[in-house]
Amino acid sequence: MAQYTRVSGSVGLITLQNPPVNALSAAVRQGIVDTVKRALGDPKVKSVVICGQNGIFCGGADIKEFGTNMSGPPLVPMIHAIEAANKPVVAAIEGSALGGGLELALGCHYRIAHSKARLGLPEVSLGLLPAAGGTQRLPRLIGVPAALDLITTGRHVTAAEALQLGVVDRVAEHSTVDAAVKFALSVAAKSLDARRISTYPCPRPSDFDALFEGAMQKVRQSARGAIAPVACVQAVRAAATRPYLQGMEREKELMATLFTSGQARALQYCFFAQRAVSKWNMPNGARWDTSKPRPVHKAAVIGLGTMGRGIAVALAQTGMSVVAVETQEKQLMEAKQAVSGMLERGAKRRGLTPAALHKISYSHDIQAVADVDLVIEAVFEDMALKKKVFQQLSAVCKPGTFLCTNTSALDVDHLASQTRNPELVVGMHFFAPAHVMKLLEVVYGPQSSPQAVATAMQLGKKMGKVSVAVGNCRGFVGNRMLKPYIEQAFFLLEEGATPELVDRALEEFGFPMGVFRMSDLSGLDVGWRVRKGDGLVESGSASGQPTRLREGRRYSPLGDLLCEQGRFGQKTGRGWYQYDKPGSRVARSDPWFHSFLEEYRARHGLVARRIDHQEVLERCLYVLINEGFRILEDGIAAGPEDIDIIYVFGYGWPRHRGGPMFYAGMVGLATVLERLEHYRQAHPDVPYLQPCSLLRRLVASGSPPVHRWREVIKKLHSQL
Ligand SMILES: CCCCCCC/C=C/C(=O)SCCNC(=O)CCNC(=O)[C@H](O)C(C)(C)COP(=O)(O)OP(=O)(O)OC[C@H]1O[C@@H](n2cnc3c(N)ncnc32)[C@H](O)[C@@H]1OP(=O)(O)O
């Protein structure tokens, strides 16, 4: 809807009304068309102001309408009618003007933004392009290079940057609507000839071809198969080479391809999934909207290794006081230097002074955490050590302190049982580097209180994380699903693949790194230690375990054998690949590994066969998806969105493929099931390939779309 009032005698004020973000639904578009007509037809009205209610101009086209039978007036002629008006129209931008919202403002003759407003054309992140004239007007207004940047990245700019770029004409410090009305009165009699952006010639940069070639190369490199950024470049190129109306035709044509694409569906699914996961619920009925978080003013981190340092930085950047504890004096000094460096660099990047530096105090004594509201333990991944820390924390901390663990796989319940108040214990599983990576798994056990979960979720939000609440099991969601994925990659090497082939298949799919390059980066010794702890590594006559079997299940010792050679990955300069020197990042094919693999196969009577990308993807990804279904069946994740967001934000799953569970729906659940059955038959000693009963059930019930899986899961749980 849009409300119309006449203010200051001669200004028609149009207020967009569609909470919470005044998205341009059919009703809003109709409201704009009607009220603009009314204002232009009213002889007392000399100028018009468009604003949004509740301090937000407009969040763009209504994404919930996409994929439905879209009715109501289309955006392009609506915006064109505003631009063609014979009375000045001023956009009063408060809060956000994004996507179609900014395109509406670009159709107005003047734009005034509040100093705290944010503006942008983020359509690319939804798999689209700014198809309401944005790709044609913006380059005409601010030039091709700046428009290319905003349109291909979708980044939001502050009002100050928008003013500098020329996107807005003025910035207001106080009421933007008042300022816009005053301004509208002052320009009422002025000619509009020079104010219609579509009539501007598009400035043609001298390095035209190089500019577009560079832009195309950049998006192809960073987008890894995403089609929208490429279409954005093509649309801006049309603005620079064609007259406005022909450019608009090109914009429409490109949008038509994107609008119905699977990538747009996947990206829009991610948009809503990201918001859905903040509305968490636990199997015991506790929910986000009925569980009140407790404020955290002071927090502590125990253990200042790589993870602890990143967590300390993330906490301090929220502005709260942080106590950082490390019992080893040398490690403490090194950590202090490293944390200060990270905070200084972070502040410099954001053009701020490093105020957070003074928020951290350091100690080697655990007693220093006595008065904090929340502790995050980040000591070495060793159960005995963590148990001891939790016993100490339980004794030292004031009553009511939340005790959190950053373990990536160990049993949170077991740690909780070491404390006097297990209801105050949750997992807060960060991803490295902890001050950069957006994902946080908040792990609750059967005894965790809703308040503890709510507090951890809220703290995650404060740190700028996308937090997902999950149940407690080995590896939680992310690492639990990773295990069968890595296992398949090892088996593929045994059967004839190379690390290069497996990685190429996964990288072409869209992962920033294939499984072996990732393993080299994170360190092969991490998994080795876990497998040792599980008693998997020892084989031979002493242990009674055959080399390639563990309790009747197929096992590949390849990773263990590399570790025995001291090949831990990048840090040792050798792993699945070789590196110029320890710590180098460029992976190069390693002839040593190739002959080692050949000898290994010969030793075990394995005959290498030709493996193609399709098989790599099917085996690695479907087995990971299958474990995702098991996680849903076990109630560890509340819905497929939780799993997908974990994979997109924590494990590099390409966002334009929507996350593993969404991807399974796109491929077709029946296909995933059929391929798993096929591979299970070929490898009967690999239990992870056994299709999960939830997957079978979903296929049997007609493979419903992903947003309806929760109903099937609920039914399944009610029958157990
Ligand atoms: C062929 C015909 C098509 C022509 C299209 C022409 C081209 C135009 C395309 C577009 O405009 S696409 C949309 C572009 N806009 C965006 O991408 C902005 C998306 N929104 C945001 O970034 C943020 O929501 C915000 C506006 C910055 C506000 O952030 P905040 O953190 O305050 O709130 P949220 O939790 O994100 O959102 C609240 C609530 O609102 C829903 N929502 C937000 N934006 C939209 C939208 N554009 N359409 C529909 N719904 C929207 C969001 O899902 C939340 O809903 P609930 O979770 O509360 O249900």
Briefly note the CATH topology name of the largest domain.
2-enoyl-CoA Hydratase, Chain A, domain 1
Biggest sheet layout = 8 strands, mixed
Give me the Rg, rounded: 29 Å
Helix content: 40-55%
Protein name: Peroxisomal bifunctional enzyme
EC number: 1.1.1.35, 4.2.1.17, 5.3.3.8
GO molecular function, one term: delta(3)-delta(2)-enoyl-CoA isomerase activity
Domain 3-hydroxyacyl-CoA dehydrogenase NAD binding: 298-472
Write out key terms for the chains shown.
eight-stranded mixed beta sheet; 4 domains; peroxisome; binds ligand LOHRUJSQ; oxidoreductase; N-(1-d-carboxylethyl)-l-norvaline Dehydrogenase, domain 2; 2-enoyl-CoA Hydratase, Chain A, domain 1; NAD(P)-bd_dom_sf; 19 strands; isomerase; single chain; 720 residues; globular; six-stranded mixed beta sheet; Rossmann fold; alpha/beta
Write structural notes for this entry:
Residues 298-472 form the 3-hydroxyacyl-CoA dehydrogenase NAD binding domain. In the N-terminal section; belongs to the enoyl-CoA hydratase/isomerase family. In the C-terminal section; belongs to the 3-hydroxyacyl-CoA dehydrogenase family. It holds the Pfam family 3HCDH. Keywords: Fatty acid metabolism, Isomerase, Lipid metabolism, Lyase, Multifunctional enzyme, NAD, Oxidoreductase, Peroxisome. The chain has 720 residues and is α/β, with parallel strands linked by helices. The protein folds into four domains: 2-260, 2-enoyl-CoA Hydratase, Chain A, domain 1, CATH 3.90.226.10; 298-472, Rossmann fold (3-Layer(aba) Sandwich), CATH 3.40.50.720; 497-604, N-(1-d-carboxylethyl)-l-norvaline Dehydrogenase, domain 2 (Orthogonal Bundle), CATH 1.10.1040; 613-718, N-(1-d-carboxylethyl)-l-norvaline Dehydrogenase, domain 2 (Orthogonal Bundle), CATH 1.10.1040.10. Helices cover 47% and strands 12% of the residues. It is built from 28 helices and 19 strands. The protein is globular and about 95 Å long. The model has no long low-confidence stretch (mean pLDDT 95).
